Amino acid sequence: MAAEREKMYECEVRRRRVKVGGGYEPFWKVKNVAVAMSDSDTEFRCKDCQGEVKILGRTGKPGTVPYVEHKSAIDAEFCSGGMVFQKATDGREARVSERPVR
Q: What's the sign of the alpha-carbon dihedral 85, 86, 88, 90?
């Protein structure tokens, strides 16, 4: 039996906007992973714990939808959006990643 995979279809992408005094400032925007891929975004993080994620399922085969998974198992265990956290029965508390993407 194949292991069930964590699949999250939304993440945050780094964008930039014009500052009031001139120049640009970075900010994070929640996006659907498929939309972010079509927009050619390059910097991603988990929308719930701000941890590193990897993009999977982007082969372009019919029926496949791009998604993200946590790179760190610790982040997956304590992220409120992660499958491992949601299935846990030990009363753990959700938290921000120990190494958040800034």
A: positive
